[in-house]
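Severity: low
Component: inverse-folding endpoint
Summary: output formatting inconsistent between runs
Steps to reproduce: submit the following structure tokens with default settings.
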């Protein structure tokens, strides 16, 4: 996997078990940037990067950037205890990857062997950067994608039903989805587009 690869973020998030915090599923979803950072309690470099990641999260939260620390360790209580002890030093979302979904979607295809390792995903789920979160270009890459995401116009929720949307042209339906950053390449029929709008844009 390389930069430019698209990830099914909804499926990935659905398989994670959140230990601390969660991600919004309202109007922020269409403009949010997600940083998945793989770590473990037994990893000294990971522990060293945690305060830096908390600073980055605080700096960019107003720009709809959400950092998710992901570990595939198998002892939830141990992770909960670690996160609790870290307190405000680990001030971002933390999740377990019990089915290795995130590992298989990001780390394995990237050929990433060591941790910590981070992936920046834009609002469409496209990987825009990957590497060690302490690298100098991590924050500059994040700044660029965050600026691009927050420059989007905030659109009012779509209130029409599927039946009402079917009265619009295919081009109009695609524009509604595209403007809100909602993926629709897998929509084959016009009805698929209308359903996707109702599912994903009624709160956007």
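Observed output (run 2 of 3):
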């Amino acid at each position: 996997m390389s930069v430019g690869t698209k990830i099914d973020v909804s499926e990935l998030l659905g398989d994670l078990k959140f230990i601390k915090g969660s991600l919004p599923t309202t109007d922020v979803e269409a403009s949010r940037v997600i940083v998945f950072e793989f770590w473990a309690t037994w990893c000294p470099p990971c522990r060293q990067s945690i305060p830096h990641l908390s600073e980055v999260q605080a700096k960019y939260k107003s720009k709809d950037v959400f950092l998710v620390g992901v570990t595939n360790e198998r002892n939830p209580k141990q992770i909960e205890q670690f996160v609790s002890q870290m307190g405000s030093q680990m001030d971002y979302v933390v999740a377990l990857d019990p089915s290795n979904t995130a590992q298989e979607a990001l780390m394995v295809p990237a050929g990433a062997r060591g941790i910590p390792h981070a992936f920046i995903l834009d609002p469409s789920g496209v990987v825009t950067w990957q590497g060690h979160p302490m690298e100098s270009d991590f924050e500059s890459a994040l700044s660029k994608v965050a600026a691009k995401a927050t420059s989007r116009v905030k659109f009012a929720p779509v209130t029409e039903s599927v039946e009402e949307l079917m009265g619009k042209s295919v081009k109009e339906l695609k524009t509604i989805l595209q403007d809100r950053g909602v993926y629709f390449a897998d929509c084959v029929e016009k009805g698929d587009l209308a359903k996707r709008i109702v599912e994903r844009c009624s709160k956007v």
